[in-house]
Design a protein that fits this description.
CATH topology of the largest domain: Rossmann fold
CATH superfamily of the largest domain: P-loop containing nucleotide triphosphate hydrolases
Structural class: alpha+beta
Strand order of the largest sheet: 10-13-14-9-15-16-19
Helix content: 10-25%
CATH class of the largest domain: Alpha Beta
Number of domains: 2
Number of strands: 24
Oligomer: single chain
Bound molecules: guanosine-5'-triphosphate, magnesium ion, zinc ion
Radius of gyration: 22 Å
Distance between the termini: 23 Å
Length: 445
């Protein structure tokens, strides 16, 4: 590290968001920029060489061996690029998991699109795209759904594959690794937040990943493909549960008045039981964190009961109350209303007990704290636009008709539970907290 970097307060240990290796900031590598230095032993032939610098420019940039100033940093283990913000801000991992086609990518994109405005307007927290280049894929997802020229052009997000652009390849310890690509967003108190003076301690770099659902099926993960192991570091697990994949939900939805015409209720897209996907993830987390089979996970398990637009008629008590889950006082302070979330969670859990009890059993068997939050990324059903290249129904949306609902609540809940506070002041204040949130804790290494 250069002397310029040392003058700002660096964390004693930096966490690589790609391979989760922890290292002192002085071990960080730089990425060469001279065109003759293309090719890296770990990051691959298309990447510039990573190196430990000895010479710096006056403004603190390392010089590569051809004397070109450099600007990007890399992990000493996997050689993936490490965002500069991670030298100063602790990461906060949030894992999104679920079966193939459950709606993980739609959830991620719509949540990223919505959460920033709520954090800044209501909670006085600045949510920023911390790595525009590394986050490019996620930015494209958001653009596809919300930044359209012509609403007659129907849109969709492509299926997340098991390999390819969603991942980072590295050659470490004599073997090829496939690692999940992290998407990084910083969240920090703005000048009017009561924790502004403590911003160095409480600001976080949120790290998100978009896995293929197949990675959560048995046997998909090996020591060379630790693509879902972010779950062990995660501050909260966001399990995406898709009722349209459950036969009992489908039967009941088709026969009720006011039935949804969602084509997903007609075709069986995924036949792997979602409760088993959760149990499989739970056993991986137990294995990675050394939890015994009888211990319960001590961080929140948030079951996102997705595609609410499609199963809405089955819910006896409307979850509209969720619109009151954020209350703003006359002085402009926002609080998360945990009582509202718990009440809606209870109603959704009752419905699940009727049509998909196995998911409730799996969730309650794994985590101490489980909350069920209904969500819709799109607000409506997709339209069948023929068949795709693999002969599967091609489901698309009119972009002018996409209205996500409640997508930000799981993240607000997770941030509230991360214990980011000082005295009486919390990053995300909440009312009716059953117990004071846990103190700030280090992510599991
Ligand atoms: N009705 C309804 N359908 C949705 C919603 N969100 C996503 N979908 C549909 O669900 C399908 C799967 O969504 P994705 O986000 O691609 O699912 P995924 O979990 O990322 O799937 P993999 O990448 O295969 O693991 C899409 O074809 C969408 O049409 C929603 O809020 N409501
Ligand atoms: Mg996906
Ligand atoms: Zn790494």
């Amino acid at each position: 590290m250069s002397s310029a970097d040392r003058s700002i307060s660096l964390l004693p240990l930096v966490t690589c968001p790609t391979c989760w290796f922890k290292f002192p900031p002085e071990d960080i590598l730089w990425v060469a920029t001279h065109s003759s230095l293309l090719g890296d032993s770990r990051a691959g032939d298309a990447e510039y060489r990573r190196f430990l610098p000895t010479l710096f420019t006056v403004d603190g940039r390392a010089l590569d061996e051809k004397n070109e100033p450099c600007h990007e940093l890399a992990c000493p283990r996997c050689h993936a690029v490490v965002n500069r913000g991670l030298l100063e801000m602790e990461p906060l991992f949030l894992s999104i998991l679920g079966a193939p086609s459950s709606g993980k990518s739609f959830y991620l994109a719509t949540m990223i699109h919505s959460v920033g405005a709520i954090l800044s307007k209501q909670f006085r927290l600045r949510f920023e795209n911390a790595a525009p280049r590394a986050n490019q894929l996620m930015t494209e997802y958001v653009k596809t759904l919300f930044d359209y020229e012509d609403h007659e052009k129907l849109v969709k997000l492509e299926k997340t594959d098991r390999t390819g652009k969603w991942y980072i390849e590295s050659h470490v310890g004599g073997q090829d690794l496939l690692l999940s690509r992290p998407y990084l967003y910083s969240v920090q108190p703005d000048e009017s937040h009561p924790l502004y003076a403590q911003r160095r301690q409480v600001s976080r770099m949120i790290c998100l990943y978009d896995n293929a659902g197949e990675h959560f099926l048995p046997g998909a993960v090996t020591s060379q493909t630790p693509v879902i192991d972010h779950m062990a570091r995660s501050e909260a697990l966001l399990f995406i549960y898709d009722p349209t994949q459950e036969s009992a939900f489908r039967r009941a939805s088709r026969s009720c008045n006011d039935a949804s015409l969602d084509p997903q209720l007609e075709t069986v897209i995924n036949s792997y039981p979602q409760a088993d996907v959760l149990s499989e993830a739970a056993s991986r987390v137990r294995q990675l964190t050394g939890m015994s089979a009888t211990d319960k996970f001590d961080r929140p398990l948030i079951v996102i009961v997705h595609k609410f637009d499609a199963w809405r008629p089955l819910l006896k008590k409307s979850p509209k109350r969720l619109d009151e889950a954020i209350q703003v006082s006359s002085t402009g302070e926002a609080t998360l209303q945990l009582e509202v979330l718990r009440e809606v969670s209870k109603n959704v859990e009752e419905l699940l007990m009727e049509y998909g009890a196995s998911i409730v059993t799996a969730a309650r068997g794994f985590a101490k704290e489980v909350i069920f939050i209904p969500v819709t990324a799109t607000g409506r059903s997709p339209i069948v636009a023929g068949a795709d290249a693999n002969g599967r129904v091609d489901l698309r949306f009119d972009p002018s008709q996409i209205f996500p609902r409640w997508v930000e609540l799981p993240v607000l809940y997770a941030l509230h539970h991360a214990g980011l506070r000082s005295g009486d002041d919390a990053f995300i204040p909440a009312e009716n907290a059953a117990k004071p949130p846990a103190p700030i804790r280090e992510p599991v290494s």
